[in-house]
Amino acid sequence: RGGARATPSARKRAGRGREAASADAKRAKPATEGDGSDSEDFWTNEMRARGLATTSGGRKTSARTPKKRASGGGEVVKVSFEYLLAEKAELEAGAKRDAETRERRRLDDENLEARRLEEAAAMKREAEMEEAAALKALDSHEEFLDAHGEAFELRYDAETLGANAFASSRSSAATTSSESDAKVLGQCASKALRAVVKRGLESVSSAREEDLWRVLLLERWLPMRWASAKRACDEHTMEWLWDVATTCSRHDVRLAARDSFLAALGFDCKWGSLYDAREQRYDYRLGAPADGRSQCPPPAWVLCASTVCDTLRTFGARDYVNSQRSSLSAPATPANEDDALCLRPELFVVAEMVTAVCDNAFARNVEAFDNVDGCARILQMFVSIAIDYRAQALGWVLQDAAAALLASVPQKSWDTFKSKAIRYLLEISSNIDSNATEEDEYANVGVYARVVQWLPNLTSRDRDLRDALAAASAVSIRHLLPFAKSTASVGKKPKRITPAELMKIIPKLARDDAQSVIARRRAAMEHLSDVVVRQDTPAKEVWSVIVCMDLVDVTLNGGRVVDAEENDPEGGLQLFTRFLSRKVSKSNRRSLGELRTKLFSMGTRYERAVKEHDKRSVARKESIYAVD
To answer: How far is CA 539 from CA 27, 475, 542, 595, in A?
Structure first.
């Protein structure tokens, strides 16, 4: 430096040193930085980066370490190509295995889907077969039920009211007067009332006569006059009140006339209420007093039974005296389709006024009506109205009227009344429809039980009437019961009882002495004990047996033991107890199921009744030896 210049030989030696250093540096450089002929290191690094270098077992391994570079480089290039071909073959084999796996999975999925579809189709076919079998079984079951008449329905009520018993709800609430109202209010009154109205017209010249009659009723002028002047209602006024209460079109005037009628009989007025469901004024079980009651004066006008019957016929009650009912048998239809039908309020008013007349007679211990036949006809009409399902609103009103009617019948006329009442009440059940077929006759059997169960059951006389009517009803339906075929040991099936035979049987059943009561109980069970019920018995005959059991139960008073027939094996109670011990096998028929339940429940009740009677008998015998 800063010295002499280098000689050419020195420069030559320095150049050779730099070339050797450059050759050493090239030998020391990595293989990747070499030229393109060293491709083995490139593919190895590429496969390591992509993670494709795997073993035959599928486990990832690191790339093979290339061999050391040999001198000359020819052998290294040859080994790199073999390695790449092996790796390529391995990759192709892996890709082939993946394709085979995907194909196998696809085939498995197709097989599973086909199997699933096949199972669904099999389940659908099985469900269709089960449904077809169920429908076939149902059809066969319905055919079986149809063959035995299980579609039969027993009726306990009937449409006995005519079209006149119903009125439009709008027309019944109308307040407009009519010419008939003026005629009834003005021309049917007594002379004293006409004089009062005449003085009113003279004092108020602008008033109408019809309005004065209404004011006279609505302002309770008549009851207050009777109370202040201490005078009773006269005959003409009382008859006029009945006519106004049953024929006037104004509802408030009808109720006012009814209240005045009740006041004339000695009862408290309801003053405008149609029916308040109060209890009876008298307890009929105590009987009427011998000396009568001062608050119930004898009425000035005697209401006839024929008048009541005619009024009830006018209001749609069925007429059993004249069987041809052209006008009353027409169906009740409203004039306007949007309007509804309702019971005529006059039916309530008539029933309450008849109840008041009977209660007045009961309090005075006299008969309410002029003849016994008329009383039986009134009871028949009350019952015929009550069994109509459209007259349910009249239920308690008619019950009170029937109880008062039975209580007002004097004891001397009771036997005659009872025979007539039984005959008339049987007409209700037997004459439901004049064009009835045999099927309708079986369906109407329930009406016999409905009539018996509806009658009052307050006193011993009421129960005696119910028992006799139930026995007569059981005899009337004997031809509808199922019997075995006639053999040497079993007689023929009884025929339908004729009216002449029934007229002879009713007086015997109506007697109330001890021997007659025992005969009545035996007669009710006379045909029921021979009944045979099998699995193929028609349903209508099975239901007839059920109704007959209810009638016999009423006749036997629910298992009451009569001392005279306690040990009689042919008595009614013993026969019915043996009948209740019969067994009916289980069946899917509704009629046989009802009969089986009825036999079990009624048999249990009768067993308890007999046990209680035996217990009381033992206690009564032991009380004889009791020491005080």
So the answer is: 119, 20, 5, 10
Beta bridge partners of 54: 60
- Which residues are bridge partners to 60 per DSSP? 54
**CA 448 distance to own-chain centroid:** 21
CA distance 377 to 359: 18
Angle between helix axes 460-476 and 514-524 (nearest 10 degrees) is 40
pLDDT tens-place string over residues 38-48: 555 666 666 66
385, burial (CB in 10 Å: exposed 0-12, middle 13-18, buried 19+): buried
**Start-end of H helices in 37-73:** 40-50
The angle subtended at Cα 530 by Cα 527 and Cα 532, nearest 5°, is: 125
Query: Which pTM value belongs to this model?
Result: 0.73
CA distances (Å), 340 to each of 336, 343, 487, 496, in order?
8, 10, 59, 42
Q: Residue 226's CB: how many other CB atoms inside 10 A?
A: 16
Region for residue 58 given its phi and psi (left: phi exceeds 0; alpha: psi -120 to 50; beta: otherwise): left
Identify residue 389 by its one-letter amino acid code.
Y
Instruction: Give the closest residue to 582 by CA, choosing from 608, 560, 600.
Output: 600
d(CA 476, CA 442): 12
Q: How far apart are CA 542 and CA 535, in angstroms?
A: 10
Tens digits of per-residue pLDDT, 323-335? 544 333 444 544 4
Contact 342, 169 (CB under 8 A): yes
Distance of CA 76 to the CA centre of its chain: 105
